[in-house]
Amino acid sequence: MAAPGQRLHILDRKIAVPGSSYAYPTTRDTRVGIVSASSNAYAAAGGRTTEVSLSAFSFLLSEMVQHVQARVTSIDALERRLEEAGYAVGLRVLELQQFRDKSVGKRKTRLLQALQWVSADMWRALFGKTADSLERSTENADEYMIHELQPITNVFVSVPPDLGQLNCAAYIAGIIAGALDGACFPATVTAHTIELAGQEANITAAGGPRCKTVFLVKFSEEVMRREAQLA
User: Fold this and answer.
1) Most exposed residue of 18, 48, 76, 115, measured as fewest CB within 10 angstroms of its CB?
2) What is the DSSP string of the chain?
């Protein structure tokens, strides 16, 4: 467990909070789409895109992480609690997207359809962009990977050395799991920190992130049996 006073730190533009080891960003011009409409049809019909400032999101996330950190004794437990928090969000995202976009309301029957919706439509609705890439594991047929160079949960986070490989994107992993489960594609989703190498490292060498996050999606046996029947 982290020693008293060892907290995750929020970086970049800061404002100190009296009596706290945290400093919160004061950026006002950067905004994050939260469960916004993803279809042009919805926007054309007068739908409103709901946005939350990145500063506000970072503040709320940091408070949640501190709250959970004080109640667990290991990094694994901390990540599991973040995943649980994100799971409920994923269920609501799916529900709201189905309400706003009628094409989403059509039940996905194939595994790849569901994953493409998560990495494209849902990602765009939440973060204003699609995921960097979606790949299938070459070793296990039930595993897929969603790559994200810089998850929004990690933009202002600096993890102390004593917390090792903690990845706050576990919250996003929970969102993915909740959305897939709600769509009848139950899966275990975990967030992993991967060091950049080769071409990716060269692209981000000028002050960019040195690591990326890979969300490993492992589908249940039930999903794989159904997929085999539909193939």
Assistant:
1) 18
2) -PPTT---EE-SS-EE-TT-S-EE----S-EEE-S----HHHHHTT----EEEHHHHHHHHHHHHHHHHTT-SSHHHHHHHHHHHHHHHHHHHHHHHHHH-HHHHSPP-SHHHHHHIIIIIIHHHHHSS--SEEEE-SS-TTEEEEEESS-GGGTTEE--GGGTT--TTHHHHHHHHHHHHHTT--EEEEEEEEE--THHHHHTTTT--SEEEEEEEEE-HHHHHHHHHH-
Q: Tell me the C-alpha distance between 231 and 210, whole Å.
A: 40
Please determine, for residue 224, whether its predicted confidence score (pLDDT) is greater than 80: yes
The C-alpha atoms of residue 33 and residue 43 are separated, in whole angstroms, by: 14
pLDDT at 198: 58
Is 0.85 surpassed by the pTM of this model? no
pLDDT higher than threshold 90 for residue 21: no
For 9-230, CATH number?
3.30.1380.20
Going from N- to C-terminal start, the domains of the chain cover 9-230
